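Entry:
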Amino acid sequence: MRFDREPRPEGYCWTARKEALYLRRGTREVEKIARDYPLFVDQFRPRPTLPVGEERKRRERMLLKSDQQWRDLQARFWRQARSAYFACAREMRAAILAEWNQWRGPARPLYLTYVVEKHNGVGEERSRRMREQDAAMLARIRERETSQAALLLV
């Protein structure tokens, strides 16, 4: 099965500019409070800040955590797409694989799901349900409009 690799992050890029912005965060918050709430300046206090080293480590942890969450989500989507693919009949899988190998877009799980659902009928069924829901919603809106228009004419 064809797929595009995603590069892993090489770590958080802590620059001198980011450090300067972080160190000035407290004064910027005080200025913002003074500008937005001039009558209540003495009642608001800026958030406490961590030392620079701890903030660097926190951002590094957050980057690694969010990257891992993204990779886990992509893996879950791949597993769902592949299970839908293998649930199809052999002839249908051959047609899906041929189309997937000709696919010129990114090799991501969403696109594989699209190709699979195009062949197994799930996509058409979803589109039909969406069209029905849209038609029902439009009917409710039109009914509400006519009832409101009738109230205005009375």
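The two ends are 66 Å apart (CA to CA).
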